[in-house]
Amino acid sequence: MKKMTKMACAVAVALLLLPVPGQAARTASANRGGKPVVTMGDRPGAVVPGVGQNKNDTKQNKAAKGSNTEIKNKKNSGTQASQGNKTDTKREVKTKQTVAPKRNLNAIYILPKGYKDITIKGKAEATKKQAAQLIVANNKNLPIGCNVGEIVDLYWEEAEREGIRPDMALSQALLETGYFNFGGAVEPWQHNFCGLGTVGNGVQGAAFKTTREGVRAHIQHLLAYTSHDMPKTELIDPRYEKAHNLRLQKGLITKWSGLNWTWAMGGEYAEKVINTHQLMLRCPDKEPEGMWTDHKKQQKELEKLYEKKMKERNKLEQYKYEKPKHEKYKSENRKNEKHKNEKRKK
């Protein structure tokens, strides 16, 4: 029995001294600085970095990598979205800064409630005396060949005939001419009270011989914008047909607010006209001094000046028409001279 126990102990010690399968290979390769090697002692399917894997393991690894890349892409997309939101907010801030704030027109002009509904046609609200008061307060000596009382009477007469509001039409004339002080491209001898044909660059526009003709042309031009009807008097406005046809195509304008960007290139043109009219309504309803001064001498001088200026205009227009003919004639002469010189040389 003692011998048997001794033998069993010896076998157990021998077994303990035997190396574990795969352990030596791993330790040896580690000592050599090489990569670990998979041996039969390792469990099947074990993943060791840097060593080839079986098909199932590669699929699992790819799936894991794919999930990792998806997570990264999501993170990147999230960061890009956040950056995009930041840029969008920056753009919004920039656009908000560049957009000009709306002007408070009531702080600039005297505008009644519902002023955008004031019609071009209708009856006068202001009186003739109030209109005269406003003109005299800004210009006592009119350079247009008539006195204050006459110009007011002419506007009331011509406008009421066509159904146009005379006080508003006169307010427009005061705005266009600077209370008949002029100072722009249009001169007093033209009797152009509404800027007919003044397209800028020093172009003077239409001209009329008398004050009545100038007032009538103004009223006719307003009628072209606002009505299907033809004027009841002889057509004097040189731009009536063009303006009337345009309005028939695009739509008639029945309110003063519709004249913004149409009659004049400005978004506050109607507000300026209405502001002038409101100033007229604030004037006292009594006849001002100097309303009926004599302007007959001035009227004759303006008529002579009108004839002189119109002759000059006609000459310029004729020259513009004939200039191309003269240039063509000169070019033909030059060609003939060159041809003759070439023949002489030969």
Automatic annotation (TrEMBL):
GO MF term list: amidase activity
Region (Disordered): 26-97, 313-346
Taxonomic superkingdom: Bacteria
Domain (Mannosyl-glycoprotein endo-beta-N-acetylglucosamidase-like): residue spans on this chain: 154-276
Keyword set, alphabetical order: Signal
Signal peptide (UniProt feature, chain positions): 1-24
Biased composition range(s): Polar residues: 66-86
Keyword Signal: yes
Native source species: Succiniclasticum ruminis DSM 9236
Composition-biased stretches (Basic residues): 336-346
Pfam family, one: Glucosaminidase
Bias-annotated ranges (Basic and acidic residues): 313-335
TM segment ranges: none
Name assigned to this protein: Mannosyl-glycoprotein endo-beta-N-acetylglucosaminidase
